[in-house]
Amino acid sequence: MNNYDTNSDRRQIHTISETNTFLTKMYALMGGAVLISALAAYLTMTVFRSAVMNMPVAMMWLILFVPFGLSMGISFKADRSPVASLVMLTILSAIYGFEFALIAGFYTGTQITTAFVSAAAVFIAMALFGTFTKRDLSNWNSYLSAALLGFVVAWVVNMFLRSPAVTYVFSFIGVILFTGLVASDANRMKAIYSNYGDQVSTNGLAVLGALQLYLDFINIFMFLLEIFGGSGNSRN
Protein backbone atom coordinates (compact mmCIF):
# COMPACT_ATOMS: atom_id res chain seq x y z
CA MET A 1 0.00 0.00 0.00
CA ASN A 2 3.00 2.29 0.39
CA ASN A 3 4.29 1.82 -3.17
CA TYR A 4 2.33 4.62 -4.79
CA ASP A 5 3.65 7.38 -6.98
CA THR A 6 2.58 10.56 -5.21
CA ASN A 7 3.54 12.76 -8.13
CA SER A 8 1.35 15.84 -7.93
CA ASP A 9 0.91 15.85 -11.74
CA ARG A 10 -1.44 12.87 -11.53
CA ARG A 11 -5.11 13.78 -11.85
CA GLN A 12 -6.79 13.92 -8.45
CA ILE A 13 -9.95 11.81 -8.21
CA HIS A 14 -11.41 13.21 -5.01
CA THR A 15 -12.89 16.59 -4.15
CA ILE A 16 -11.43 18.76 -1.42
CA SER A 17 -14.41 17.90 0.80
CA GLU A 18 -13.83 14.16 0.41
CA THR A 19 -10.13 14.56 1.07
CA ASN A 20 -10.83 16.60 4.21
CA THR A 21 -13.22 13.90 5.42
CA PHE A 22 -10.52 11.27 4.95
CA LEU A 23 -7.92 13.39 6.77
CA THR A 24 -10.32 14.03 9.64
CA LYS A 25 -10.87 10.29 9.99
CA MET A 26 -7.13 9.57 9.89
CA TYR A 27 -6.25 12.19 12.49
CA ALA A 28 -9.17 11.12 14.69
CA LEU A 29 -7.87 7.54 14.66
CA MET A 30 -4.37 8.77 15.45
CA GLY A 31 -5.67 10.93 18.32
CA GLY A 32 -7.71 7.99 19.59
CA ALA A 33 -4.57 5.83 19.62
CA VAL A 34 -2.76 8.45 21.72
CA LEU A 35 -5.67 8.58 24.18
CA ILE A 36 -5.70 4.79 24.46
CA SER A 37 -1.98 4.85 25.24
CA ALA A 38 -2.50 7.53 27.89
CA LEU A 39 -5.36 5.55 29.48
CA ALA A 40 -3.38 2.30 29.41
CA ALA A 41 -0.41 4.05 31.03
CA TYR A 42 -2.63 5.49 33.76
CA LEU A 43 -4.27 2.13 34.50
CA THR A 44 -0.89 0.40 34.54
CA MET A 45 0.45 2.84 37.13
CA THR A 46 -2.68 2.70 39.30
CA VAL A 47 -5.21 -0.13 39.01
CA PHE A 48 -2.82 -2.80 37.69
CA ARG A 49 0.33 -1.63 39.44
CA SER A 50 0.65 -4.63 41.76
CA ALA A 51 -0.03 -7.10 38.95
CA VAL A 52 2.62 -5.47 36.76
CA MET A 53 5.17 -5.57 39.57
CA ASN A 54 4.66 -9.32 39.86
CA MET A 55 4.66 -10.00 36.12
CA PRO A 56 7.30 -12.52 34.96
CA VAL A 57 10.27 -10.99 33.16
CA ALA A 58 9.72 -13.27 30.17
CA MET A 59 6.18 -11.92 29.79
CA MET A 60 7.44 -8.34 29.84
CA TRP A 61 9.97 -9.09 27.11
CA LEU A 62 7.24 -10.68 25.02
CA ILE A 63 5.02 -7.63 25.40
CA LEU A 64 7.89 -5.34 24.42
CA PHE A 65 8.28 -7.08 21.04
CA VAL A 66 4.59 -7.52 20.21
CA PRO A 67 4.20 -3.95 18.77
CA PHE A 68 6.65 -4.76 15.97
CA GLY A 69 4.48 -7.63 14.80
CA LEU A 70 1.32 -5.57 15.12
CA SER A 71 2.80 -2.72 13.08
CA MET A 72 3.73 -5.11 10.29
CA GLY A 73 0.30 -6.73 10.47
CA ILE A 74 -1.45 -3.37 10.08
CA SER A 75 0.78 -2.43 7.15
CA PHE A 76 -0.03 -5.65 5.28
CA LYS A 77 -3.71 -5.97 6.19
CA ALA A 78 -4.95 -2.37 6.25
CA ASP A 79 -6.23 -2.49 2.68
CA ARG A 80 -7.73 -5.99 2.87
CA SER A 81 -9.08 -5.96 6.43
CA PRO A 82 -9.62 -2.46 7.87
CA VAL A 83 -11.51 -3.72 10.93
CA ALA A 84 -8.76 -6.17 11.89
CA SER A 85 -6.18 -3.43 11.35
CA LEU A 86 -8.12 -1.07 13.60
CA VAL A 87 -8.24 -3.75 16.32
CA MET A 88 -4.49 -4.25 15.99
CA LEU A 89 -3.92 -0.49 16.21
CA THR A 90 -5.97 -0.40 19.42
CA ILE A 91 -3.96 -3.27 20.94
CA LEU A 92 -0.69 -1.70 19.84
CA SER A 93 -1.66 1.62 21.44
CA ALA A 94 -2.55 -0.11 24.71
CA ILE A 95 0.76 -1.99 24.77
CA TYR A 96 2.74 1.18 24.14
CA GLY A 97 0.79 2.78 27.00
CA PHE A 98 1.90 -0.09 29.23
CA GLU A 99 5.51 0.43 28.14
CA PHE A 100 5.27 4.18 28.75
CA ALA A 101 4.11 3.47 32.29
CA LEU A 102 7.24 1.40 32.92
CA ILE A 103 9.45 4.18 31.54
CA ALA A 104 7.59 6.96 33.39
CA GLY A 105 9.05 5.85 36.70
CA PHE A 106 12.42 7.24 35.63
CA TYR A 107 11.11 10.76 35.04
CA THR A 108 9.32 13.43 37.01
CA GLY A 109 5.75 14.49 36.29
CA THR A 110 6.99 17.86 35.07
CA GLN A 111 9.39 16.27 32.60
CA ILE A 112 6.69 13.98 31.21
CA THR A 113 4.17 16.81 30.87
CA THR A 114 6.70 19.13 29.22
CA ALA A 115 7.76 16.43 26.77
CA PHE A 116 4.16 15.56 25.89
CA VAL A 117 3.04 19.16 25.37
CA SER A 118 6.14 19.91 23.31
CA ALA A 119 5.65 16.76 21.21
CA ALA A 120 2.00 17.66 20.63
CA ALA A 121 2.92 21.20 19.56
CA VAL A 122 5.61 19.96 17.16
CA PHE A 123 3.32 17.28 15.76
CA ILE A 124 0.38 19.63 15.17
CA ALA A 125 2.58 22.24 13.48
CA MET A 126 4.27 19.78 11.14
CA ALA A 127 1.07 17.83 10.41
CA LEU A 128 -0.63 21.06 9.37
CA PHE A 129 2.34 21.97 7.20
CA GLY A 130 2.42 18.55 5.55
CA THR A 131 -1.34 18.56 5.01
CA PHE A 132 -1.81 22.04 3.59
CA THR A 133 1.45 22.77 1.80
CA LYS A 134 1.27 22.92 -1.98
CA ARG A 135 4.73 21.41 -2.22
CA ASP A 136 5.33 17.75 -3.02
CA LEU A 137 7.24 16.33 -0.06
CA SER A 138 7.76 12.85 -1.56
CA ASN A 139 11.52 13.43 -1.73
CA TRP A 140 11.53 14.13 2.00
CA ASN A 141 10.37 10.60 2.73
CA SER A 142 13.18 9.04 0.70
CA TYR A 143 15.90 11.08 2.38
CA LEU A 144 14.42 10.79 5.86
CA SER A 145 13.91 7.02 5.54
CA ALA A 146 17.55 6.58 4.54
CA ALA A 147 18.68 8.82 7.40
CA LEU A 148 16.43 6.93 9.81
CA LEU A 149 17.96 3.61 8.81
CA GLY A 150 21.45 4.91 9.55
CA PHE A 151 20.21 6.44 12.78
CA VAL A 152 18.73 3.14 13.97
CA VAL A 153 21.98 1.30 13.24
CA ALA A 154 23.99 3.91 15.16
CA TRP A 155 21.45 3.79 18.01
CA VAL A 156 21.80 0.01 18.30
CA VAL A 157 25.59 0.32 18.37
CA ASN A 158 25.33 2.91 21.14
CA MET A 159 23.17 0.51 23.16
CA PHE A 160 26.33 -1.56 23.60
CA LEU A 161 28.61 1.44 24.12
CA ARG A 162 26.17 2.98 26.63
CA SER A 163 27.43 6.52 26.21
CA PRO A 164 25.05 9.02 27.91
CA ALA A 165 26.50 11.92 25.90
CA VAL A 166 25.94 10.13 22.58
CA THR A 167 22.42 9.10 23.67
CA TYR A 168 21.63 12.72 24.50
CA VAL A 169 22.86 13.94 21.11
CA PHE A 170 20.96 11.14 19.36
CA SER A 171 17.79 12.33 21.06
CA PHE A 172 18.03 15.68 19.28
CA ILE A 173 18.70 13.94 15.98
CA GLY A 174 15.71 11.67 16.59
CA VAL A 175 13.42 14.64 17.20
CA ILE A 176 14.58 16.26 13.95
CA LEU A 177 14.11 13.08 11.92
CA PHE A 178 10.63 12.28 13.18
CA THR A 179 9.55 15.92 13.00
CA GLY A 180 10.34 15.80 9.30
CA LEU A 181 8.58 12.44 8.97
CA VAL A 182 5.36 13.90 10.42
CA ALA A 183 5.16 16.43 7.60
CA SER A 184 6.27 13.88 5.01
CA ASP A 185 3.82 11.18 6.12
CA ALA A 186 0.91 13.61 6.37
CA ASN A 187 1.65 14.92 2.89
CA ARG A 188 2.08 11.42 1.46
CA MET A 189 -1.15 10.02 2.90
CA LYS A 190 -3.08 12.98 1.54
CA ALA A 191 -1.52 12.46 -1.90
CA ILE A 192 -2.22 8.71 -1.87
CA TYR A 193 -5.87 9.26 -1.01
CA SER A 194 -6.29 12.07 -3.53
CA ASN A 195 -4.76 10.04 -6.36
CA TYR A 196 -5.57 6.42 -5.49
CA GLY A 197 -8.48 6.57 -3.07
CA ASP A 198 -10.76 4.75 -5.50
CA GLN A 199 -8.40 1.76 -5.68
CA VAL A 200 -7.96 1.04 -1.98
CA SER A 201 -10.08 0.82 1.16
CA THR A 202 -10.52 4.34 2.51
CA ASN A 203 -10.91 3.05 6.07
CA GLY A 204 -7.83 0.87 5.72
CA LEU A 205 -5.81 3.76 4.36
CA ALA A 206 -6.95 5.92 7.27
CA VAL A 207 -5.82 3.26 9.76
CA LEU A 208 -2.45 2.95 8.03
CA GLY A 209 -1.97 6.71 8.06
CA ALA A 210 -3.00 6.86 11.72
CA LEU A 211 -0.42 4.19 12.56
CA GLN A 212 2.41 6.02 10.81
CA LEU A 213 1.56 9.36 12.40
CA TYR A 214 1.07 7.75 15.81
CA LEU A 215 4.54 6.16 15.62
CA ASP A 216 6.01 9.51 14.55
CA PHE A 217 4.37 11.22 17.52
CA ILE A 218 5.43 8.73 20.17
CA ASN A 219 9.02 8.76 18.89
CA ILE A 220 9.11 12.55 19.13
CA PHE A 221 7.65 12.29 22.63
CA MET A 222 10.18 9.67 23.77
CA PHE A 223 13.17 11.57 22.38
CA LEU A 224 11.96 14.83 23.95
CA LEU A 225 11.45 12.98 27.22
CA GLU A 226 15.06 11.85 27.07
CA ILE A 227 16.16 15.43 26.35
CA PHE A 228 14.14 17.02 29.16
CA GLY A 229 14.97 14.18 31.52
CA GLY A 230 18.66 14.34 30.70
CA SER A 231 18.76 18.10 31.22
CA GLY A 232 16.82 17.92 34.48
CA ASN A 233 18.37 17.79 37.89
CA SER A 234 16.40 14.85 39.19
CA ARG A 235 14.43 11.79 38.29
CA ASN A 236 12.15 9.65 40.36
From TrEMBL:
Q: Can the keyword Transferase be found in this entry's annotation?
A: no
Localization recorded for this chain is: Membrane
- A Pfam cross-reference name: Bax1-I
Q: Which domain of life is it from?
A: Bacteria
**Matches recorded under InterPro entries:** Bax_inhibitor_1-related
* Membrane topology category: Multi-pass membrane protein
**Record's keyword terms, sorted:** Membrane, Transmembrane, Transmembrane helix
> What are the GO cellular component annotations?
membrane
Membrane-spanning residues: 26-45, 57-76, 83-106, 112-131, 143-161, 167-184, 205-228
PANTHER family per record: BAX INHIBITOR-RELATED (PTHR23291), PROTEIN LIFEGUARD 4 (PTHR23291:SF50)
Family, similarity comment: Belongs to the BI1 family.
Its name, as the record gives it, is: Integral membrane protein
